[in-house]
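Pilot study result, target chain (538 residues):
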Amino acid sequence: MQRDIRYLLLRQSILLTTTSMIYVILAHNSPESLRKLMLRLKNKENHFVIHIDKNFNIGSFIKATADFENCYYTNKRYSSYWGSFGMVEATLHAFDFIRQHLRKRQRIVLLSGSDYPIKNNKFINNYLKSHKDTIFIEHEAIPRKWWNDGGRERFPIYDEIKNKLKLYGGSQWFSIPPKALTVIFRFLKLNPEFFEYFKHVQIPDESFFQTLFLNCDHHYIQENLKNLNLHHIKWDHPYLHPRTLTVEYYKQLKKSKNLFARKFDLEYSDELYNKLDKLEVNTSGNKITKSAIIFLTDKSANQIRSKYEKLKKESGKLDIFKVATEARADDGADNTLLYKHAYSKKMGYTPFVHDNIIPGSTYFSLLYFFNRYKDYDYYWLVEDDVWYNGDWHKFFSRFEKNGADLIGAYINSYSDAPHWEWWNSLKTKRTINNEYKKRVFYPVCRLSFDALKFLDQRLKEGDYGHGEVLVPTLLHLAGFSLYDLTVKDRFVINSSDWCVGNNNNGTYRYRPNISLEEIKGEYLFHPVKKDVLPLIEI
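Predicted structure:
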């Protein structure tokens, strides 16, 4: 009877705790590697749904995991050799079982039998719980520069299909919340031709789910899709196969922000296994481990002294830097970085409006800083014409557990403010229709390491435009998460009008200037002129 249960011949639903993680593992050739992986992930909350390639003896795998609870082998098996459609079918079959039998699911993680976690269970669980609705899947539009011929050759009748279906590709390993299962199976039921087409695609497991998510037009997917692979993988050229990791990669894995790595082999990775098992990591699972504050100014030290000193005093544990865009603002301190507008060309970017950081191009200076200080998870930018009447430490602390890639204000779409003059300034190699464009107001904003890395790449590829449309649009289309202060944290901005697309009133407006009567309450103010500052209580 025990073996029957393991083989998924279940007659009743399995009730899980609301904190359970479900690992779907696709394995084929090493029962010992599978056992080692499961031992590392084993706890009372985690469940395992395992598919074994039909060409291998499943008995040795069942024997190797006989002492595990919450372990289920799929009753239907596929030939899941590299690049086969069987990889997709095996994944869908495991997902279907989870959907039908494993209720109160917390998170689903897809792994290979040759994967291994590089963080401990507590860290992984806490991290994934803090992103409960996030769909972690690497995705890039076809043609994808990393693939031969951009990946076009993988798709039959490519020229015809690309006009009907937006094609995407990326790593096959991903992690999804349970709500995404409903979207997947509903999409496949409504679009049976999608499933049939991918039977003829080469290496379909690297594009099936990416293309499905990016074409399903479901608001839950659009709002939660994040272009991030949770795996640390080293790729070998010229065929871009994952490299077998040995102990010489230990330092890389120790520093990695990923949760898992691949691939491992018992013969070559034994010492690396042992070192990872002993590795002590911060178990909070909180992605914000280190943040920097960048104070952006073109004014002399005397002109902005009160603002800067207040920010320094109240920055708490965050590192604070000053980025000066004029020589007069460079005080020569170790934490001051001089950025000249012409540097954008040296960084490989196309400058916006005659090499000038104005208008709306403060992201140039932030990227300049980022390329010199890459050891932070998040980067706050505070412009010198902003004042906060509250305690900056309390302000920043409110976002310590917020995993958004971009925090800004008045994030809206073209339809919310079609009159805005800068929508058409956005220029990219790929035409972006107005309906997909986003706008942000960011005198105070925060961007993640991953978001800045992505923007740096896209700007070097030739994208440019007014920052208030370029930054949020590129990030949104790539699946990064955006967080709007004016919608979810109204405590920081005092406004009588919360109409989407309107940022011309309230304390955080663009114009007119803030009056003396308005400088009260713990709110963000912009713009604040120098004649107001002496009257503000610090």
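One observation from the pilot: Residues 1-18, 495-502, 534-538 have pLDDT under 50 and may be disordered. A full batch analysis is planned for the follow-on phase.
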